[in-house]
């Protein structure tokens, strides 16, 4: 094997020094993929109300959007807490008056998850066709667990309160 001349070795050495290191795009693509998934998951808003096909809410002219709270949904067939079915309306009607036990148990569980007491507000979403007696019993159940505030959800209509009353 031939030994290289001094000039050839100097040229090789200079060529090695001139080469810039390559950019590793695989790592960058992994980071951006994770970032995109993170943003997609967190961009979805959980404060959206159920679709109008599922239930018909009363109309309101409130100016502020509702805060994120514990939600009790009373549909035509069942009572749900954050999308989890707790009991049916038929069972509630058969049970008579007073506190709704399955609802009380679920709300107590939800309260125990937030030990700091920050979840002391309850939002009730009730279909217009649900009898007032059932709504009253849901509120009575929440008061038994010492919820400090109970809010009622409604569909927002543009305009003033006088215009909404004419609807």
How would you summarize the topology of this molecule?
Elements: H1 6-18, H2 25-43, E1 59-60, E2 70-74, E3 78-81, E4 84-88, H3 89-95, H4 101-113, E5 121-126, H5 132-144, E6 149-152, E7 155-156, H6 161-166
Parallel strand pairs: 1-7, 2-5, 5-6
Antiparallel strand pairs: 2-3, 3-4
Brief rundown of the structure:
The protein has helices at residues 6-18, 25-43, 89-95, 101-113, 132-144, 161-166, and strands spanning 59-60, 70-74, 78-81, 84-88, 121-126, 149-152, 155-156.
Low-confidence stretches: 163-167
- Give the number of DSSP strands: 7
Order of helices and strands: HHEEEEHHEHEEH
Helix content: 40-55%
Q: Estimate nothing, just give the exact number of structural domains.
A: 2
Q: Into which percentage range does the β-strand content fall?
A: 15-25%
The CATH architecture of the largest domain:
2-Layer Sandwich
Query: Total helix count?
Result: 6
The first-to-last residue Cα distance is 99 Å
Radius of gyration: 30 Å
- Kindly report the average pLDDT value: 76
Biggest β-sheet strands, sense, barrel: 5 strands, mixed
């Amino acid at each position: 094997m031939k030994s290289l001349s001094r000039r050839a070795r100097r040229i090789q050495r200079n060529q090695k020094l001139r080469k810039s290191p390559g950019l590793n795009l695989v790592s960058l693509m992994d980071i951006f993929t994770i970032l995109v998934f993170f943003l997609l998951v967190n961009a979805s808003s959980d404060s959206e109300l159920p679709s109008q096909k599922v239930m018909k809410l009363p109309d309101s002219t409130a100016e502020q959007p509702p805060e994120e709270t514990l939600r009790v949904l009373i549909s035509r067939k069942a009572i749900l807490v954050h999308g989890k079915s707790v009991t049916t309306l038929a069972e509630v009607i058969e049970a008579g008056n007073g506190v709704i036990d399955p609802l009380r148990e679920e709300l107590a569980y939800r309260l125990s998850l937030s030990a700091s007491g920050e979840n002391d507000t309850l939002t009730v979403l009730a279909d217009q066709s649900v009898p007032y007696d059932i709504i009253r019993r849901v509120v009575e159940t929440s008061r038994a667990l010492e919820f400090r505030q109970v809010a009622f959800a409604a569909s927002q209509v543009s305009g003033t309160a006088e215009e909404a009353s004419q609807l």
